[in-house]
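Write out this protein's structure.
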Amino acid sequence: MRSANVKTTGILNPKIAGEKFHLTRHLPSPDLAFFVEWYWIIHWDLRGEEPHTQDVLSYPSINLAVEEGQSGIFGVPTGKFTRTLVNKGRVIAAKFRPGAFYPFVQSPASQFTDKTTPLSVVFGSAGDRLVADILAAEYDDQMIAHMELFLCDRLPARDENVVIVNQIIDCIIADRSITRVDDLVRHLNLNKRTLQRLFNQYVGVSPKWVIQRFRLQEAAEQLAAEKNSNCTEIALKLGYFDQAHFIKDFKMIVGVSPTEYAKRAAVQP
């Protein structure tokens, strides 16, 4: 299984995070690459240390995760995702491409948003068997093999709407001038209501949410990487009309102002 590049985009306070757990990403087999972006595995050993609380600005992706006592289908969290790590443990997850979990279940992605749904609810007893097999595995490649087999056994037909969703999201990421849904509609010549229905069914969050999330992810990454970050400059680069609007959005989701976040997260020389 090939490893994928590990970026810290979306992981808040990445310097501290890197000291508390080990994250690896692994590419799926070609048969699954249309649906699964990668498998991610986290190991941590905090025995004798204080618990570590990690915040994440999640992507618009659904994850199938297996961990002792906390396995399930993790829908897109509309706020920041917070998890506290204690003692020693590990978790493996399949991160589906935006929109790509829908073909497996043929149910609106919005029904999973802001929820963790037990695997048995979605896949019946086979979901429980997957959890048992992965928890019994000793090595990472064995866990990945169980996940691959489970998904390949349920491989759906390719859905053209998944392609459309990812093209739209790629456009949002690449073009900073897209700051509103109306910008997206004009840029891609889309019907606004059709776009909203597509995202509700396949992604689970609105196009507006996706636009804001990628802008805030980029802002957090810049603030953590640049010692003397200029909030006004970052706001303008990300397409915000004014600094106040950027600060309001950032604080609402992250919980602190950009300036305070930069103090906590900046990588030291």
